[in-house]
Amino acid sequence: MKSSFRNIISLSLALLVVFSTLSFTVEKHFCGKTLVGKAVFSSAKKCSSEMHICAAEDRGHMNTKKDSCCSNKKENIDGQDELKTSSFSFDFLQFNYIIPLIFISENFLYELPFQEIPHKYYKPPLLFADVQVFYQVFLI
């Protein structure tokens, strides 16, 4: 349970780092004001015909122009570029505290000396009858 929880957390943190640094482009293709195609990491789907009938925004009639109303819009979504790596250095003063700690803790980590169990091989005598039933003494 503990190791599986640790694996899930480490995998989720690794994915968080990957997706926070990932950069990608979203490309949109508009014909007039309607969205025709949308794509991520590739070019957007273009209009089916080259001749489009677009309504002129300044006039109230229809106008036939070649690719005049189509437009492409690209959005770049940038990931995090600056990652801070943590670094540490050991000072000589830290070693002055670590070395005595090792010698002191070494004394406490020894095994206890072998102690003989006094009644290890003692076998109790065989019972000829159940004593509680024989004397009729019962705990209620």
Automatic annotation (TrEMBL):
This is Uncharacterized protein. It comes from Christiangramia sediminis. InterPro entries: DUF8199, HYC_CC_PP. NCBIfam families: HYC_CC_PP.
